[in-house]
């Protein structure tokens, strides 16, 4: 498959908190509240990351954190010390801070109610939630946030509100091939109803030390190629297929239909996969056989449609070119 270019964005990764109500069998990011590495970033810490990102020419502030950390006893004390009753209100204020610095927020806060999406919509250029799989797998046992129906409902809420959205599947966590087909068909059906899914990530599971799935094997390149081919066959053409170049070599996957390399950070590590460093731009160019084109966290078609709030308009105008991609100077 010949593509004129593949896209990527430049971002800063902001791990707002690693406290989470879920205990996924493959997750190396989550920390118990009493763990010495458990944290909730302060506004000053977030501001410092945002300023570094702006200085490095980033366009995106990627806010990632554990799902519903307020359900973990003791976490609310941290929030109250910062003057907030809940994590979503805190995220709103940090998103405003990001906009004031000139970075477009993209938030991955886990399962949300429609009212929570409504709060965040005005201050986020795009949002995301990995579907992961529609199957019930051992790695999700006891995780309230990994019930497929709940994740599907959240993705639909975002569609109802016309929020440009990222979702995807996690390959190799115990699902079958038929499960992958069903998961991708579910995403296809949601997009056909709402038209808001801008990219689908096909992400390969990587085992993490000291997790329940540490001894499991991740998918090989042939399995990933087959899955990317499936995604490109099943999903509408206006949805980009994204693969992570810090987790797997993208060259063969681009030949199978992958067209985006996700967010590449010049300033921050991938806190979800800290053992896998981001390639720099020169390394990224050497990993593909087609030109690269930088985009914003909101894809060009949604920039053209005006799927963003008035409060984001000036930042999008400053950062985007006439086609809706990242402006070059």
Main sheet attributes: strand count, strand direction, barrel closure: 9 strands, parallel
- The string of secondary-structure elements, in order, is EHEHHEHEHEHEHEHEHEHH
Would you report the number of β strands?
Answer: 9
Distance between the termini: 31 Å
CATH topology group: TIM Barrel
**What is the level 1 CATH name?**
Alpha Beta
Radius of gyration, in Å, reads: 18 Å
The CATH homology group name: Aldolase class I
Put simply, the count of helices is 11
Q: Estimate the helix proportion, in percent.
A: 25-40%
- What proportion of the residues form beta strands (DSSP E)? 15-25%
Write the CATH architecture name: Alpha-Beta Barrel
Q: Stretches where pLDDT falls below 50 for ≥5 residues? A: none
Count structural domains: 1
